[in-house]
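Worked problem 6 (solution included).
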Amino acid sequence: MSPLPHFSGSPRSVRLSLCAGAVLSMALALLSTTVSAQARTTVRDRAQQERARDAVRDADRFSVIDGTVTDTLMQPLGSADVSVVGTGARVVTSENGRFLMLQVPPGQYLVVVRRIGFAPTSGIIEVPERDTLRLSYTLVRSSNLMDTVRVRSSRVTMRMFDFEKRRQQGLGQFITQDEIERRGSVQTSDFLRYMRGVQVSQNTTQAFGGTQVYSRREGGGFDGNQQQQYCPMQVLLDGIILPRYFNLDLLPPPKQIAGIEVYSGAATIPPQFGGVDRRCGVVAVWTRDGY
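Solution. The predicted structure is:
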C-alpha cells in the first residue's frame, strides 16, 4: 500500500493548501477552456476580419458606369434594358435615356442593350479601377416588333423550338442543354473545341483579345511563317450580334446555356443568321433565360 501524502504545518495550513490546490486546478481548467475558446474564436474572427479587409480592399477598386442610350436621331430612349452578360447585373434607362451602375469591379465585360421596337446592340467594355466609365449606345429602329407581344418566357420557348427544328434538319452541329449538363465544364468555349471544322485558340493581337473561335474551312491560307490562317466566326448570343473577334470568355457560364449551334461554313448557315459577312461561319449561343 502506498504511503499517505504528508502535509507539514497545522491542520489549518493543510486545509488552506488543499483549498489552494483546488482553486489552482479550477483556475487552470478555466484558463485552458478560455484559451481554447479564444483560439477557436480567434480563428473565426480572423477569417471574418480577412473577408472584411478583402471587401474593403475590393470596394476601393470599384468603379462606376455612367451611360446613355439613344436612337439614331440622338433622341434619348427610356425603358431600355442594359445587361452585363454573365453577372446578373441589369438596369433600365430612365426617361432621359441615362443609366448608372455602381460598385463595378474592374475587368472586361460584355454589355447587351435592348429595347422593344429596336434592334439590340452589344459591346465589350474595359472597366478601370477607381474611375467612372462613360458609355453611349445607339439603337436602330427595327421592323420586327414581335417582342412587343411576347413575354420573355414565350420568347425563350419559341427560340428553343426553332433550335430543335434546325437540329432536326442536321445542317449544323448542335449541343443541347442535356449534353452541356452531362459533360460539365467551367467555360462555355470548351464545348466548341470538339466541333468539326472549328479552331478555338488564344488571340493577343486584338484590342480585346482572349479565347476566340475560327473556321478551318473558310478564309484559309498561310501567313509569312507558313502557318495556316483561319477565319474568325461570327458569334451570336440569343440572336444578338456580338463584336468581331469576340472573346468567348465573356459568354455566360455553361449553367446558363440552353443550347449551342455551329455552322463552320457560309453554305450551311440558316437564313435567319445571315448578314453582311458570314463567310467564316456562325456560332449561335442560346441562354436559358434570354437576353
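Discussion: The radius of gyration is 32 Å.
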